[in-house]
Amino acid sequence: MKGRITIEDQVIEKIAALAALEVEGVVTSSARTSPPSPAETPPGLPGAPAAPDGPGVRVHLHDNEVSLDLSVAVEYGCVVMDVAREVKTHVARMVSQMLGMRVVAVNVSVEDVSMPAGGRPARTPGGTRPEGTHGGTHGGPHGSTLGGARPGGSA
What we know:
Strand order of the largest sheet: 1-2-3
Structural class: alpha+beta
């Protein structure tokens, strides 16, 4: 049948932002804005910036392939690299599933750290995160590096 289906960039942005917010440890974002400025475009209209309480998303669409740039804020006390990896995986899965498009890249930029809604991070009496809450010792005593490699050792 003849006809065309168009999915606006704003729809893809919203799906990616909502998927990122589903990941444990993602709280808000600095919501990176792109032209036009908020003064030029009222919220809710095409070209409007992301909401200040959700991840900032930029979409790069070519044919039936999409790449995404996300900026997020992570809850204080979570392992940032673990949260960012989960954001990449979950956003790619949801965008691909909902749109039927091939996701070629999801670039995650962690731009802020925030306290959880209750104002205090979940801690056990020993000062460590409870199991399953993105606590742990990712990266060992030297901290974490991109790609999971540690100085002086293998990943």
